[in-house]
Design brief:
The complex is a heterodimer.
Chain A lengths: L3 E3 L4 E4 L4 E7 L6 E7 L5 E7 L4 E3 L2 E6 L4 E6 L8 E12 L2 E6 L3 E6 L1
Parallel strand pairs in A: 2-11
Antiparallel strand pairs in A: 1-3, 3-8, 4-5, 4-9, 6-7, 7-8, 9-10, 9-11
Chain B lengths: L3 E4 L2 E4 L5 E7 L5 E7 L5 E8 L2 E5 L6 E7 L2 E6 L8 E8 L11 E2 L3 E5 L1
Parallel strand pairs in B: 2-11
Antiparallel strand pairs in B: 1-3, 3-8, 4-5, 4-9, 5-6, 7-8, 9-10, 9-11
The chains are: A mainly beta, B mainly beta.
């Protein structure tokens, strides 16, 4: 079983739609949670951190359910520029005080005009 | 100004060759990383250095050898290249990866390695 699992998509949605991505992780000791965005043939970039209380950044809302080991990302009013791969990422302890990031394989979003 | 830079951007080589990829960051960060993203887009950490000291060493073939001459540079040397080494290699840096908490990682543009 992969440590971080996501639906690979693609999710094809029209502009203005609301789309939700889900992610599950296997390590109950995971410490921190994130969504990264990766454009085609580009490097990943941090989109937002995810907190247990849920957090919002403009049109983006992230939720974490530690009991179910489940993370979600909601994008409202989709724009063409939101088209990208969204990577679910967790931070786990590697040893001592060092953490490492575990990436999901990503969910591809294609927003259509 | 480029925060994390890698050279070369593309690398095409024959099986059996030895090659190096270089990475530099100008963010003043203490920690640098090498990741491999395979053809299925799976991004996985290989190594991490903090202030020139190796702190993460995942299970990778010993043909891969990282070197950090100073905290702003982390290079990756690959011996006896194999077909399966074809991937995109990303360098990243963060403020301090040993603090037991997350520091945002900033990625370089990637080096697309093709082994023929």
């Amino acid at each position: 079983r992969k440590e971080v699992e996501q639906d690979p998509g693609p999710f094809n949605v029209p502009e203005g739609a609301t789309v939700a991505f889900n992610c599950t992780y296997s390590n109950s000791a995971s410490q921190s949670f994130f969504w990264y965005r990766q454009d085609c043939r580009k490097e990943p970039k941090l989109l937002m951190s995810v907190y247990s209380s849920g957090n919002e950044d403009g049109r983006f809302t992230a939720q974490l359910n530690r009991a179910s080991q489940y993370i979600s990302l909601l994008i409202r009013d989709s724009k063409l520029s939101d088209s990208a791969t969204y990577l679910c990422v967790v931070s786990v302890n590697y040893g001592g005080a060092t953490n490492k990031l575990i990436f999901g394989t990503g969910t591809l979003l294609a927003v259509q005009p | 100004d480029t925060a994390v830079s890698q050279t070369p951007k593309y690398l095409v080589t024959q099986m059996g060759n030895d090659k190096s990829i270089k990475c530099e960051q100008n963010l003043g960060h203490d920690t640098m990383y090498w990741y491999k993203q395979d053809s299925k887009k799976f991004l996985k950490i290989m190594f991490s250095y903090n202030n020139k000291e190796l702190i993460i060493n995942e299970t990778v073939p010993n043909r891969f050898s990282p070197k950090s001459p100073d905290k702003a540079h982390l290079n990756l040397h690959i011996n006896s290249l194999e077909l399966g080494d074809s991937a995109v290699y990303f360098c990243a840096s963060s403020q301090d990866g040993t603090l037991g908490r997350y520091n945002e990682q900033f990625f370089g543009p990637g080096t697309r390695l093709t082994v023929l």
